[in-house]
Amino acid sequence: MPNSKSRRQWSEFFSNNKRQELFKDFSVPLLNDKGKKQKTSSSKHVFFPCHVEKENDGENSIYRGSTGGVIISGKQYITIKLPYGLSANEIWRATIDQNGKQRNSLSVGAKKYKDKVQKQYGPMFRALKLKAIDQLCEIRLIVQPPLKTRSYSAKTYPRFDIDNYPKLIIDSVKGNGLLFKDDNIFISEQIKLAEPIEDGCVWLSCVFTDEIDWLSKTVDFDWLAGRSI
């Protein structure tokens, strides 16, 4: 699990008074493309030049790209803002292979989601010369469902089941030239819901930790029961 210092740095940033500024649309003119088309080593996408603006908020840096991406970088974490996800029923489709066996593959909608995310963040990571994360860390998702005008309770508010979110969203930013190389770097995961916003979004964070020896950890039943949170 991440140490208390990294948890504080991450949570303090997301609870400060400037967090609403991150929900604003960001749009700046694209740079003129005078060079040749470039490709990442692990993707067939063509990534065009991306203009990125940076602002500092204490020890954190906020990057906004002309592709629509938002990256927040702190000492112990990096966070990106992703489009709202798809339901489990929309992610997979069943197909029959040449041997007559049923296989599950990504649906057209899921492929479009991944393509959209990679076109947002591939150019930004290239422009910032950020390498894909390859160290053990905790992954956290904060999900903000699309805003509804009707009043709902926490139980009845329309949203996907919380276990719908991780797989497609995490896979969308996996690979060389993206956020992290492989999801085997994650030794812990948290998913939480937060206040709805227009169109919805998902904040994905990689929180770095020094506590990497999970092989020797015993089961903490107090933590399972919520007594040590």
Describe the structure in brief:
The protein has 229 residues and is an alpha+beta fold.
* CATH H-level homologous superfamily name: Holliday junction resolvase RusA
In CATH, the architecture is: 2-Layer Sandwich
Instruction: Tell me roughly what share of residues is in helical segments.
Output: 10-25%
- Can you tell me the CATH topology? 60s Ribosomal Protein L30, Chain: A
Highlighted features:
229 residues, alpha+beta, 60s Ribosomal Protein L30, Chain: A, seven-stranded mixed β-sheet, two-stranded antiparallel sheet, 5 helices
What does this structure look like?
It is built from five helices and eleven strands. The protein has one domain: Holliday junction resolvase RusA (60s Ribosomal Protein L30, Chain: A, 2-Layer Sandwich), CATH 3.30.1330. It is an alpha+beta fold. The strands form three sheets. A seven-stranded mixed β-sheet has the order 3-4-5-6-11-9-10. The chain starts with a helix and ends in a 5-residue tail after the last helix.
